[in-house]
Design goal:
401 residues, alpha/beta, Arc Repressor Mutant, subunit A, Rossmann fold, five-stranded parallel beta sheet
C-alpha cells in the first residue's frame, strides 16, 4: 500500500493515483507499461474517467513546449564560471526542504492535512469535532509525535494505558487537527463479524419490486475503502473471531477478503489505531476484567507501541478548571488526591484507580453542589468497596482539612 505522503511530491504538487495498484505518479504511461503491461488506452477502458497525467505534469509539458519553440542558442559559458551559482543552488535546496502547505508537523513527524476538496460528503460525516478544552501537555505532545510517526510511516499503532487517561481523545484530536475522517468501535465481547466486516442483506428493488441480496460493509470494510482512520478501543477485550479478521488486515498489504470473494485493498489514507488497558499479557490488578492475552505474532503487527499515562499535575489541574470552571486551588487538591490513590494502587494498598475522567466528574459535581466532599461521595467513593472508599475519604479529609 502506498503511503499518503506519496500523493504529493517534494514541491507539494499533487500526483494522480493508479487505480490498479493505488500508487501515485505524475504520469501513468510508463508505469502502466512496465508494471501492468497495458497502455493508457486500455487503462482508460478499464477505468473510465480516471486521469493518466497530473495537472502539474500537464503544466510542465506545456511550459517545456513553449520554451522549446522560443529557445535561443545557448551562449558558451565563460571560463571558470558555473552555469548556476552556488547561492541559487542553496536557495533551491531550501525551497525543496521547506514544509509544504497543508502538512501538520509535530516533533520530527509530518502528516498531511486533508482538504475539503479531498473529502466527500460521506467523509465529512466522520470528521471528529475538536474539543476546545483539550490540553496538549508535554506527555500528550510526545504521544502525538509518536502517533503521527506511525501515520506517516503507514504503520499500525497501539496505545496502552490506564482507563480514563485520554488515549482515545488524543487520537480524535489529532484527526481533527488534520481534517482526517475517523471511525471508532469498541471491541467488547458482543461485537459480531457482521458489524465489523459486513454481511449480506436482503432488500427490495424499487424498480422491479423483487427481493435482491446485497452486501453491506461493516465498519472495518467501510473505513478501508474510504481511507478513514479506524480507532479500535479495548483491543485486549476483543473476541477471538475479531482478532483473526484483524490479523490479515494488520499485515503490510492491508487486504481484506470478504465472504463474497471480493478482495478489498485499503485506501492509501487508511490507518488502524488501537487502544488497550493492558499490553496483551492479561491483567493481574483486577481493574480490567474481561481482558485477553494477545499472542506475540499479533502484537508484532503494530509498528509503534505508545505507553500512555495520566497528564502531569499542572496539565491535569488545567483540564479540570477548563472543563468544569472549578477554581485552581480545588483543582490542584483534587489532583493530589488522585495521585495519592494511584500510588496506593501500585503498592496494593487499594484496588481502584483514579482516572482523569473520574476527576472531571468529581470537579463538575463539586461546582454544581458547591461542596467538594459531598461531590466526592456521589462521583467517587459510592462506586468503590467500603475499604477503598474509607481510604480515599481519609485522603480527602487530610487534603481539605
Amino acid at each position: 500500500m502506498s503511503s499518503s505522503s506519496e500523493r504529493y511530491d517534494s514541491k507539494g504538487r499533487e500526483k494522480i493515483q493508479c487505480e490498479i495498484c493505488s500508487k501515485f505518479f505524475h504520469r501513468l504511461d510508463v508505469h502502466l507499461t512496465k508494471a501492468h503491461g497495458i497502455n493508457t488506452s486500455e487503462y482508460a477502458k478499464q477505468h473510465p474517467g480516471s486521469p493518466t497525467i497530473s495537472d502539474a505534469a500537464k503544466k510542465a509539458a506545456a511550459k517545456g513546449a513553449r520554451k522549446r519553440s522560443t529557445a535561443k542558442p545557448a551562449k558558451p559559458a565563460k571560463p571558470g564560471s558555473a552555469s548556476t551559482s552556488h547561492a541559487k543552488r542553496v536557495q533551491a535546496l531550501k525551497k525543496r526542504s521547506a514544509p509544504e502547505e497543508g502538512v501538520f508537523k509535530i516533533g520530527v513527524a509530518r502528516i498531511r492535512q486533508r482538504t475539503d476538496k479531498d473529502l466527500t460528503a460521506q467523509d465529512k460525516k466522520h470528521l471528529p469535532v475538536h474539543d476546545e478544552h483539550y490540553k496538549l501537555g508535554p506527555a500528550e505532545r510526545e504521544q502525538w509525535e509518536y502517533l503521527a510517526l506511525g501515520v506517516q510511516a503507514s504503520e499500525n499503532v497501539l496505545i496502552v494505558g490506564p482507563t480514563g487517561c485520554g488515549k482515545s481523545l488524543g487520537v480524535q484530536e489529532l484527526a481533527a487537527v488534520c481534517n482526517q475522517p475517523m471511525q471508532r468501535i469498541n471491541l467488547h465481547g458482543e461485537v459480531r463479524a457482521a458489524m465489523f466486516v459486513g454481511d449480506k442483506t436482503v432488500e427490495v428493488d424499487p424498480k422491479t419490486n423483487q427481493a435482491v441480496v446485497l452486501w453491506q460493509d461493516g465498519i472495518l470494510t467501510d473505513a478501508m475503502r474510504k481511507g478513514h482512520w479506524l480507532l479500535l478501543d479495548e483491543l485486549d477485550a476483543a473476541p477471538a473471531h475479531i482478532l483473526f479478521v484483524l490479523q490479515a488486515v494488520l499485515e503490510k498489504g492491508m487486504r481484506l477478503v470478504l465472504p463474497t470473494g471480493e478482495v478489498v485493498q485499503a485506501h492509501a489514507d487508511f490507518r488502524i489505531i488501537a487502544t488497550a488497558n493492558t499490553l496483551g499479557r492479561g491483567d493481574d490488578t483486577g481493574l480490567y476484567s474481561g481482558t485477553n492475552i494477545l499472542n506475540e505474532a499479533f502484537l508484532d503487527r503494530f509498528g509503534i507501541i505508545i505507553q500512555a499515562g495520566y497528564p502531569t499535575p499542572d496539565t491535569e489541574a488545567g483540564i479540570l478548571t477548563e472543563r468544569t470552571g472549578i477554581n485552581h486551588e480545588d483543582a490542584a487538591r483534587m489532583v493530589r488526591v488522585a495521585r495519592d490513590v494511584r500510588k496506593a494502587l501500585e503498592t496494593e494498598t487499594v484496588y481502584c484507580t483514579f482516572s482523569t475522567r473520574r476527576l472531571v466528574t468529581w470537579a463538575d459535581k463539586a461546582v454544581r453542589l458547591g461542596d467538594v466532599k459531598r461531590a466526592a461521595k456521589i462521583a467517587v467513593t459510592n462506586r468503590l468497596s467500603s475499604e477503598d472508599a474509607t481510604f480515599i475519604n481519609g485522603i480527602v479529609q487530610r487534603v481539605w482539612g
